[in-house]
Amino acid sequence: VSEMRKEILGPRGQELLRLKEQYAAPSFFHVTPVVMDRAEYPATLIDVDGNRYVDFAAGIGVMNIGNQHPEVLEAAKEQLEKATHFGFHVVLYEPYLRLAEALDQIYPGDEPTKSIFVNSGAEAVENAIKVARAATGREYIIAFSGSFHGRTAIALQATGKTKPSRLPFMRSAAPNILHAPYPYRYREPVPFADDDAAGEYYLGQVRHLLDTVIAPELVAGILIEPIQGEGGFIVPPTNFVQGLRQLCDQFGILLISDEVQTGMGRTGRWFGIEHHGVVPDLIAMSKALGAGWPLGAVTGKARIMDAVPGYAVGSTFGGHPVACAASLKMLAVMRRDGLPDRANSIGETISARFRSIQASCPQVGDVRGRGAMQAIELVKDRTSKEPYPEAVNDIMDECYRNGLIMIKAGLYGNVIRTLVPLTIGEADLKKGLDILEASIKKVLG
Ligand SMILES: Cc1ncc(COP(=O)(O)O)c(C=O)c1O
User: Which residue has the CA at smallest separation from atom 16 of ligand 1?
Assistant: First the structure.
C-alpha cells in the first residue's frame, strides 16, 4: 500500500492497516486498503472512520439482493434463534430441502433436478467436476482459456482414506483438465465478420481438441462460464454455446455451467446460460446464492446427480441452515420484486454511460456485458490494444478516495467491472457512475 493510499485513511483505518501488515498474509490480494465497518441497505458501505462509499462491488457479486436487506436479515435471525448448526450429514433440516426445491424451480429446462450444498464457488466447481466424472466414468474435463473457477484442487487427493469419499474419483486423481480457446471477440487477431462466424471458429477449436488431443469418449464434461467473470466480462456468441451443447449430446459429455458469478439474476436472467437458450446438465453456483452467507451449490439433472454413490460428496458446513434460510428469502424477494429484470435496466444505464465515456476517451477500447454485468476494457491505444492495467489501478484508487468501491477484472487486469447490488436506487447508481466517470477522466486526462 503506497504512502498516498495510507494518507486518505482515518486514524482507525491506519491502526488496523498496521495490524494487516503485521498479521495478515500478503498473498490474500485486496483492491483497496479501506477498512470497512458496516453497511446500510442497499448499497452503502461505511468505513471505521465513518467515511461513506457507494458499493459497486457487492463483495464480488455477492450482495445482488443488497447488503442488510431487512427481510433477508429477518429470515437469517429467525433461523439463528432456532439453531446455529446441525450438519446435513447428521440430521436433515427444512431450509436445506426447501432450497433444493427452490433451485429446481428456477433451473432452466423441464427435467427434474437435485442439489448438493457446499460453502464456496471453488467447492461447487470441484463437486460439479466430481459429479461429472463419477456419473460418466470418464475423467477428462474441457475448460476454457481465461476462465476462473476457484482456488482449491487437491484437498481430496490429500485425504488419506480411500472410502467412501475418494473411491469414486480415484481414477481421476490427476487433474486431466484441458483448455480450449474462449471466444474473446475484442482480442481476435483477425476479427471475424460476425458473432456467428466467430462462434463457428471457436467451436471448431473444441472439435479439433477432441480430434487431436483427447478422444470425446474420455471426456466427462465441458465446463464453461456463460459469461466470463474474472476473465473480464466476456460474452461468447450464442451459436458457440449451443454448439457445445450439441457436441455434448453427440458424445455423452456433460455440459457444466459455472454460474458462480453470473447466477442469481446478475445478467438479467436467473442464470447466464439462459441467454443462449441452452440447458446445462449441471450448474455450479455460489456468491449471490447465499445472500451474503457462505454457500455453494451443485444443481443438476436428477438422473446425473443420482448416479453418484452415497456418502461420496458432502461437507460439515455445506448447506448451513442460516445460509439456506437467507438464500430462500433472497430468492423469494428477487422473484417478487422482479430483480433479474431490474438487472437489465441497471445494465442499460451503465452501458449507456460507458459508451458515452468511450466516445471521449480513446483508451476505452471496449464496452461489453449483459444485464448488470457491465465492463470497460482499457488499452494504451485502440490500434495496438495494448492492455492498460496501470490506469485501471489508478482509477480504482481515485474511486475509493472519492467514495466509490469498485473492482477490476480481465486476463491482463485492465478491465473495470460493475457488480452493483440489483436493489441499488437510481440516485446511488448515478452517484457511483459520476464518481467513476470523473475518476476515469482524471486518470486518462
Ligand atoms: C465463475 C467463478 N467460479 C468460481 C469462483 C470461485 O468462487 P470462490 O471464491 O467462492 O471459491 C469464482 C470466484 O470469483 C468465479 O467467479
Answer: 261
